[in-house]
Each structure stands twice: as C-alpha cells, then as structure tokens.
Design a protein that fits this description.
Elements (H helix, E strand, L loop, with lengths): L12 H23 L2 H8 L3 H8 L2 H29 L4 H18 L1 H13 L12 H20 L8 H15 L1 H4 L9 H17 L12
Helix pairs in contact: 1-2, 1-4, 1-6, 3-4, 4-5, 4-7, 5-8, 5-10
Length: about 220
C-alpha cells in the first residue's frame, strides 16, 4: 500500500472567495475592523494575503463585501421565491412574511458583523470602497426599490412612497434584530422568533395593504 499522501483537491475561485468572506465575518465580528488584519483572515482561511488583495482590492473592500454578501444572498433567495410565486401565486401577506422571515434570519445570523460595520462607519474613519456614494447597504437597497416598483401592483400594494416605504420595512426588521438585547429581558419571557416574525409581518402587511390611492398624499420631499 502506498504511503504517499492523497493529493488535495484544488479549490475553485468561488470556494476560496466564500471561505475568505465567511472567515472575515467571524473575525471582524469578534475583533472589530482594527483588530482583525488581512493576515489573520488569510491564516484562518488557509489562503494567501495576495489572494485577498487580488479578490477584494483592500482590507476595506474585504470588509464591505463581508457585510453585504449575506444580504445579496438573501435578496437572491427572496427574488427566486418570487419567480416561483409567479407560477404558484400566494397571498400578499404570505409574500410579506417570506420577506420578513428571510431578512430576519439573515440579519440574526450576521448580527455581530453588522454591529461591527455600524461601529466603524459611525465612530471611526473607514477607507470605504464605495467612494463616498453611500453605505454598501444603501447601495444594495436600490435593487429592492426596483423590485418593489415592479411587484407592488401585483401584490395589491398601491400608492407606496418608494423608496421610503422600502427602508421603513427594512429598518423595522433590522432594528428588532440589532436591538434585541435592549428591547427584551433575557430568559423565559423573551418572545420567540416566531412571535417576532408574526408581529412584524402583521404590522408591515397592514400598513402596505391599507394605502388608498384616492387619499391626498403630500408630495415627497
């Protein structure tokens, strides 16, 4: 029997990218932007620093992409569901619930990374790759604006103040996730995930479906 070690399978570029981003999220969430270096990420992920710089351009670029990639996956998953729903229609409330549930779980799974991003962008100078054109999250929300404009009529949601309505909906879910420990006491009285998602869905659906285009609406400013 040969004692030669079995050759390791060569990882694809996409596998290396996903592993690097996953590792970066863990380290940035645990240590903050300043405390986690590209060398730390490279060692933990089993890649070279050169690979990180080749794929993301800089530490700031890696940080930005680590923040936004889970949201991109959420949006891809949600719009895939919407494509399916065009063939198998569901009620507007069911669509709202799927949005709330997917977004809630995405944000909850990446809460530490999002908090690190908020801290660095609010309290320290981050050499962002966005070049002064808003946060990476606001950039991604533009894609949601386009979808809402196309889908709201099909769902029966009329007279929406897009993009403000979109950001109110997003902020409601994000606020419940990020401020959970400030809003609720820990222990047995803490509401379950199901209760929180159900209540956000009820609030959001009621607000969206109650809009009446015949009501006078102030001109957006």
């Amino acid at each position: 029997m040969s004692n030669n070690p079995k050759p390791r399978r060569r990882r694809s570029t996409e596998e290396v990218r996903e592993l690097t981003l996953s590792t970066a999220r863990e380290l940035f969430a645990a240590r903050g932007y300043a405390g986690a270096t590209t060398r730390d990420v490279a060692l933990e992920a089993g890649v070279t620093e050169a690979t990180i710089y080749r794929q993301f351009g800089s530490k700031a670029g890696l940080f930005d992409q680590a923040v936004v990639e889970p949201y991109q996956r959420f949006w891809t998953s949600f719009t895939d569901q919407w494509t399916t729903e065009l063939r198998q229609p569901r009620s507007g409330k069911e669509v709202v619930r799927s949005f709330v549930e997917l977004l809630y779980d995405t944000l909850a799974d990446n809460r530490g990374m999002i908090l690190a991003y908020i801290c660095i962008t609010r309290f320290r100078s981050l050499p962002s790759e966005s070049n002064g054109h808003g946060s990476v999250i606001s950039h991604e929300l533009l894609k949601m604006d386009d979808w809402v404009r196309q889908a709201s009529a099909d769902l029966g949601f009329t007279d929406l103040d897009n993009p403000v309505t979109v950001r109110c909906s997003f902020a409601m879910v994000m606020g419940m996730v990020l401020h959970d420990d400030l809003l609720f006491e820990p222990g047995p009285t803490h509401p379950s995930r199901e209760r929180i998602i159900r209540e956000i869905t009820n609030y959001m659906y009621t607000a969206l479906s109650a809009r009446n285009p015949s009501d006078p609406t102030p001109t957006p400013t």
